[in-house]
Amino acid sequence: MQTPPFSITSTILARAEEIGEAIGRAEAAGVGQDLRLRRVNRIRTIRGSLAIEGNRLSEDQISTILDGKPVVGPLRDIQEARNAIEAYDRYQEWDPAKESHLLQAHEVLMRALLDAPGRYRTSPIVVMGSDEVQHIGPPARRVPGLMANLFEWLGNTEEHPLVSSSVFHDEFEFIHPFEDGNGRLGRLWQTLILTRWNPVFALVPVESLIHARQSDYYRAIRESSAEGKSTRFIEFMLDAILAALRTPQVTPQATPQVDRLLAVLQGSMSRRQIQAALGLRDRKSLRQRYLLPALQDGLVEMTRPDAPSAANQRYRLTELGRRVRG
């Protein structure tokens, strides 16, 4: 068995300690006892992971699908959401140390989206980004052996689950074992590993925080790949986990500025309309003190998340935002 390369830095140790304290506060606050909040977190988790891959459905649309109602949208996006809902319904049935369970999870996530879901790729894979090659996966013939070694390590390691889950996630993305669906399955599997360690992670939508920091997520993957070890990615993931534990979806609260924003948002509004409703003159203040915190905390969403700077960009409350506003 070959151990994946990584180092335990002072940053990792500090973040792990802070995460332990944040978990204690979340448990003391009774996270998970509010069924409405559990539903919101589930929707945010699914939407966040899919949005990273370009899915355009909003939280409201995913909520509608979750209720078994028809929704208007791109057929592939709707299928992805249905598959993800089923996967997150079932994921605690799976053992994170069993390779066969990961293949089952991929079959669920990619059903009707790939010709052979649940099977490792048999051809080369190249990950593109911004019109340039970001990553070239190992040859397909090496994938079964690399995955077998990764699962053997995961099943035997004595590393803390915060570390082992991040290492697995990073190594999984490096191997890129499937034709498609690697990102969403890597994130699902890290959540599964963490949930087996502490059930609070079934209620903490880490994926939504990764979506809010999407460019940093991909940068951490690239940097770890370039360095030949997972250290940088572990640090990024622990930062994201800590941020997720501290955000309003775990303990609902908002700054006075965000409270004001939630109060004035009616339907879908442009930045200019919001600025006028708030009586603000400074556009920079609107962005930094009102919009960005609300977006990062999942209280507000963009109507055009694929094009943040679009001229026709609008902002609206999410289900969580409506709940916090009351």
Short description:
This protein has 15 helices and 4 strands. It is mainly α.
Question: Unreliable runs, pLDDT <50, ≥5 residues?
Answer: none
Average pLDDT, all residues: 89
Strand residues, percent: under 5%
Count of all domains: 2
Distance between the termini: 54 Å
Taken from the alpha-carbon principal axes, the silhouette is: globular
Q: Please write the string of helix (H) and strand (E) elements.
A: HHHHHEEHHHHHHHHHEEH
Tell me about this structure.
By secondary structure, this protein is mostly helical. Helix content is 59%, strand content 5%. It has helices at residues 10-28, 35-52, 59-66, 75-90, 99-109, 143-156, 161-175, 182-197, 206-212, 214-227, 231-246, 256-264, 271-278, 283-296, 319-325; strands spanning 126-129, 132-136, 300-302, 315-317. Strands 1-2 form a two-stranded antiparallel sheet. Strands 3-4 form a two-stranded antiparallel sheet. It starts with 9 loop residues before the first helix and ends with a helix. The model has no long low-confidence stretch (mean pLDDT 89).
Task: Furnish the topology, listing elements before pairings.
Elements: H1 10-28, H2 35-52, H3 59-66, H4 75-90, H5 99-109, E1 126-129, E2 132-136, H6 143-156, H7 161-175, H8 182-197, H9 206-212, H10 214-227, H11 231-246, H12 256-264, H13 271-278, H14 283-296, E3 300-302, E4 315-317, H15 319-325
